[in-house]
Amino acid sequence: MIKFAILAVLSGALMVLDYRGTKLQPVRTALKMLVYPLQYAVDLPYRLAHFTSEFFTVHEALSKDNRELRSLVGVYAARDQKYHSIEQENIRLRRQLKAASAVREKFTLAEILSVSSNPFRKTVVINKGTNDGIFVSQVVLADNNIYGQVESVTPNSAVVMQLTDVKHAIHVRNTRTGLGALAVGTGKANQLELKHVETSMDIQTGDVFVSSGLGQLFPPDFPVAKVSHVAYNPGDSFMKVMARSMTDFTKTREILLIWREDYSPLKDKKTKPTVASTTSSASIAGDR
Predict the structure, then answer these.
(1) What DSSP string runs through 232-254?
(2) Handedness of CA 184, 185, 190, 192 (dihedral sign)
(3) Which of 177, 204, 181 is nearest to 192 (CA)?
(4) Beta partners for 115?
(5) Coil, helix or strand for 146?
(6) CA 181 to chain centre
(7) Residue closest to 164 by CA, chosen among 144, 190, 200
(8) What element of type H or E holds 111?
(9) Which of 194, 178, 176, 174 minimizes the C-alpha distance to 186?
(10) What is the CA radius of gyration of the chain?
(11) Which of 53, 69, 93, 268 is the most exposed place for a label (fewest CB within 10 A)?
(12) 137-140, long-range: CB < 8 A, 24+ apart
């Protein structure tokens, strides 16, 4: 009982001294150093259990992802074999019909470095330039959709004009009816306007338009936009058709640049296009 009283008084005195700001920091530090091994030993089983659980959880997740990826590889391998057979059949048919060979493309990946701060332009800067074979008016894709085309190039970077830029236009085709139109940029995010749509044309909200291939710049049958609004006045000859781009320009961070079979980014630098800082509206309009 006496020992307990002595310890209680001593503890109370230490608490009062600590509360009043007495310099007990060295004592506290020393006590912590003495107690730390005990704390570590007590906490060690929990740490080991947590580490083991996390290890097996991560291993199981990786194993599951690995199985799924192996399954996808098998599926894509089968599809590739099927497409290869179709390609060989098309080649034989073209030879029999004496038709021209189909145009093939090559692709390279690029990252978007910055977005234009000009509210009246919809352009981005990418990390590829003439050193990589990039050239003015080169077609740019994103997620298998038309993104735009190269406006200007430097040795290490390039400016890409998006579909929604007010200077951009592309010939498109309705996948449901086959009727054509001209998709023009509005300067607004993910918004296009379809021009030359007569009131007699069959067009509905939700119709998907793809690149037509007219103008021999953009490859055909790549998704461009989906109709979001159709309006017309009884006295007008053309309808006002608004469409939403299939590419979400606000989220895209990586793009694909495309070359036709007769052009290679690995050609000698002497054959590469001249670096351009500005481009005429006629060359950039592409299919305009």
Answers:
(1) --TT-SB-EEEEEESS-TTT--E
(2) negative
(3) 181
(4) 124
(5) strand
(6) 27
(7) 190
(8) strand 105-115
(9) 194
(10) 33
(11) 268
(12) 137/217, 137/279, 137/283, 137/284, 137/286, 138/257, 138/258, 138/259, 139/217, 139/218, 139/219, 139/257, 139/258, 140/255, 140/256, 140/257, 140/258
What are the structural domain ranges in the chain?
A: 1-102, 105-284
Exposed, middle or buried, 73 (CB in 10 Å: 0-12/13-18/19+)? exposed
CB distance 160 to 150 below 8 Å: yes
In angstroms, rounded to a whole number, what is the distance separating the alpha carbons of residues 99 and 90?
10
What is the Cα–Cα distance from 137 to 274, expressed in whole angstroms?
12
In the structure, how many helices (H) and strands (E) does the chain have?
3, 12
pTM: 0.58
Half-sphere exposure of 111 (CA within 13 A, CB side): 2
Token pair 């939403």 is found at 244
Tell the CATH superfamily of the 105-284 domain.
Rod shape-determining protein MreC, domain 2 (2.40.10.350)
Give dist(CA 22, CA 215) in Å, integer: 86
User: Running along the chain, 288 residues long, what does each successive block of 10 average in pLDDT?
Assistant: 79 70 65 74 78 78 84 79 78 70 72 88 93 93 92 94 94 92 93 91 92 87 93 85 94 88 47 38 43
What DSSP line would sit under 152-217, residue for residue? EE-SS-EEEEETTSTT-EEEEEETTT--EEEEEE-SSTTEEEEES-BTTS---TT-EEEE--TTSS
The set of residues, in sequence order, having a beta carbon less than 8 Å from that of 176 and lying 6+ positions away, is 204, 207, 208
Q: How far apart are CA 260 and CA 245, in angstroms?
A: 24
